[in-house]
Amino acid sequence: MSEPYDSRFTLPSIDDAPSTESGVILLGLDAERLLAGVGLARLADEPALVALAVDQARHEALDLGLGALVEAGIVRWRAVRPLIEAGPEMTAAGSLRREWEHATARVTATVTGLGPASVACLAACWLRRDDVNEFAGHRRAPENGSDTQDVLSRVFAD
Questions:
Q1: pLDDT of 152
Q2: Concatenated DSSP letters for 66-116?
Q3: Burial class (CB in 10 A: 0-12, 13-18, 19+), 82
Q4: Residue 142: helix, strand or coil by DSSP?
Q5: Residue 44, burial from CB neighbour count under 10 angstroms (0-12, 13-18, 19+)
Q6: Distances (CA, A) of 122 to 24, 38, 52, 149
Q7: Contact 106, 90 (CB under 8 A)
Q8: The pTM is what?
Q9: Which residues of the chain register pLDDT less than 70?
């Protein structure tokens, strides 16, 4: 008698994009790290924000600690979550890798101007939205004009 087949541990298809495997890895992160990834990805996807960050680092006005990245990620997630939510309904695929493809397609279709890192992090947050929303709901994002030295958090809020 053979053991039951567990599809969670199957190898990827040779036709799957490498970004799909990156997505499977991202889905294993906790909500805090996913939101920090959203915050950092927003910076890395936007050349102007990278230049601003370098200038702020030069003047010692940049906090890129985990807390600042999480706060920036929360601000960004709260801004784009309604856009992603309003996207087209997609049927459940039943496979983690197919779900990943659906989520990245949904994020790409609903939020414009994203680079690959933001698409990946936001897709992971979308698939893990219950955990992410719960975590983000317990944290207060910085308000525009607050006394924080991290100007990038305010830029992320666009």
A1: 56
A2: HHHHHHHHHHHHHHHHHHHHTSPP----SSHHHHHHHHHHHHHHHS-S--H
A3: exposed
A4: coil
A5: middle
A6: 13, 6, 23, 26
A7: yes
A8: 0.76
A9: 1-14, 93, 140-158
Amino acid at 44: A
CA distances for 70 relative to 16, 89, 121, 143, angstroms = 30, 28, 12, 14
Task: Kindly state the tokens that stand for 140.
Answer: 């207060």
* pLDDT attached to residue 35: 94
What is residue 145's predicted lDDT score, i.e. its pLDDT? 45
Tokens representing 127?
């698939």
Q: Can you give the pLDDT at residue 90?
A: 75
* Pair 71, 149: CB distance under 8 Å: no
Residue at 107: amino acid letter: V
As to burial, measured by CB atoms within 10 angstroms (0-12 exposed, 13-18 middle, 19+ buried), residue 28 is exposed
Burial class (CB in 10 A: 0-12, 13-18, 19+), 17: middle
Residue-level pLDDT at 136: 95
pLDDT score, position 147: 43
| Confidence at residue 148, expressed as pLDDT on a 0 to 100 scale | 44
